[in-house]
Amino acid sequence: MSKIAVVPGSFDPITNGHLDIIMRGASIFDEVFVVVLNNSSKNPLFSVEERMKLIKDVTSHLPNVKVDTFSGLLMDYAKNVGASAIIRGLRAVSDFEYEMQITSMNRVLNDEIETFFIMTKNQYSFLSSSIVKEVAKYGGKIEELVPPQVEAALKLKYNND
Ligand code: PNS
Fold this sequence. Notes:
Number of strands: 5
CATH architecture: 3-Layer(aba) Sandwich
Order of helices and strands: EHEHEHEHEHH
Strand content: 15-25%
CATH topology: Rossmann fold
Structural class: alpha/beta
Radius of gyration: 15 Å
Helix content: 40-55%
Bound molecules: 4'-phosphopantetheine
Strand order of the largest sheet: 3-2-1-4-5
Shape: globular
Number of helices: 6
Distance between the termini: 48 Å
């Protein structure tokens, strides 16, 4: 039976830290669904379609990675695609409380789907989509933080060409 995992997130936009977690997840699970949360309460810079396109572009070398979107409960989505696992990246201690809250709630909703945490690489431990956007907005250097396609998309959004 193939082992399917879901990597959920806002991905606004995908960073090298996300990509690292996706690649490591894809080396362990047979199939990985990277899914963009379609949550209208947030005010994203990139539309869901733009975020999905960027993720598809930067994961095109990974044959077992699929890109999708979801709204509603993550556990319903995961069950629908036959996933047995959720993968989340952990950066610092500051992530822990938030992740524990989400994981505990998800376990109440469905205790058959396990959440796995992958520790981020040291060089990405400070990295977040918000920080990348902040730096990009004011024309700072982001080439080591995001894939080239994302760098180009951010420059376009902020007219920083
Ligand atoms: O990249 P993010 O914003 O930290 O990802 C958060 C995400 C998408 C994993 C989380 O908000 C989520 O799973 N939302 C879906 C709604 C849901 O299932 N809620 C119940 C568990 S808290």
